[in-house]
Write a structure and sequence with these properties.
Blueprint lengths: L12 E9 L11 E10 L7 E10 L18 E4 L5 E2 L22 E5 L8 E7 L6 E8 L14 E3 L2 H4 L24 E10 L5 H4 L4 E7 L10 E2 L8
Antiparallel strand pairs: 1-10, 2-3, 3-10, 4-5, 4-7, 6-7, 8-9, 8-11, 11-12
The chain binds calcium ion (CA) (4 copies).
The site of one calcium ion (CA) has 6 residues, from loops.
Organism: Agaribacillus aureus
Protein name: Lipoprotein
Keywords: Signal
């Protein structure tokens, strides 16, 4: 119940390949920049289908990636909300409890339940807020549809963003944003350039729904200084093997 996000519905893994540390003097900007490489849907056995996104990246100081055991509180999955509206990384007795006035209804986005935060051996429901910086790769899915009503789907605007929360039952917290691990294996800052492979396993959950659609993804990454890259778009693709 500690987990806020429900990515297990569409579990993902991220793999990494071909990182190149640049030998030339660093002339790249310190913020990351990315470009589209490829996107492919693969039908697997045991319903383990996957969607494999590759993007090329570069970053002038190489501060890309979040560790599995990240201790920096900037990258915590969520913050607690206090009675004065402050966002704090660790629980204390100022944190709003369920039942307080003027709070959102109970859901998995604004509240965390079934954990004994104050140590009295009774589980608590307390107010939280998801931290978007928990992720460092952000993806939005779109499907092609005749949004301007001219009878075809050949226009730049003929895409509709897919709302995973609606598809998966109206609760918030679904999505395919993810995190990749630190890419710079040296102790020193250095420019990095390479290809990131983001493998979304069990994307089969989407294929029954969108099997007949043309899809596209918007992608953005973020470095440890919270610099966001440009947003890129994939080619159109479908979920047919
Ligand atoms: Ca950087
Ligand atoms: Ca308690
Ligand atoms: Ca159209
Ligand atoms: Ca048209």
């Amino acid at each position: 119940m500690m987990k806020l996000n429900f990515n297990y519905f569409i579990a993902y893994l991220i793999f990494l390949c071909s990182i190149v540390a640049c030998d030339e003097p660093p002339e790249l900007p310190v913020g990351p920049s990315i470009s589209f490489n490829s996107i492919a849907f693969r039908e697997g056995s045991n319903n383990r289908d996957s969607l494999i996104l590759k993007i090329d990246f570069e970053d002038g100081d190489g501060d890309l990636g979040l560790d599995r055991n990240e201790t920096d509180t900037r990258f915590k999955e969520f913050f607690f909300i206090t009675d004065t509206g402050e966002r704090i990384p660790f629980y204390d007795d100022r944190v709003i409890r369920f039942g307080a006035p003027n709070q959102p209804p109970h859901d998995f986005v604004n509240w965390i339940s079934d954990v004994d935060w104050d140590g009295d051996e009774v589980v608590d429901t307390v107010r939280i807020e998801f931290n978007e910086n928990f992720y460092n790769i952000f993806v939005d899915f779109f499907y092609r549809s005749d949004t301007n009503g001219d009878g075809d789907i050949d226009d730049d605007t003929d895409y509709i963003k897919i709302d995973f929360n609606e598809i998966f039952g109206g609760q918030g917290g679904f999505g395919l944003n993810g995190r990749f691990f630190p890419l710079n294996t040296s102790d020193n800052e250095r420019p990095l350039r390479g290809t990131l492979t983001y493998k979304m396993v069990n994307a089969f959950k989407l294929s029954p729904i969108f099997r007949d659609n043309i899809l596209k993804i918007d992608v953005q990454i973020q470095d440890r200084a919270l610099n966001r890259s440009n947003i890129i778009q994939t080619n159109d693709f479908n979920l047919q093997p």
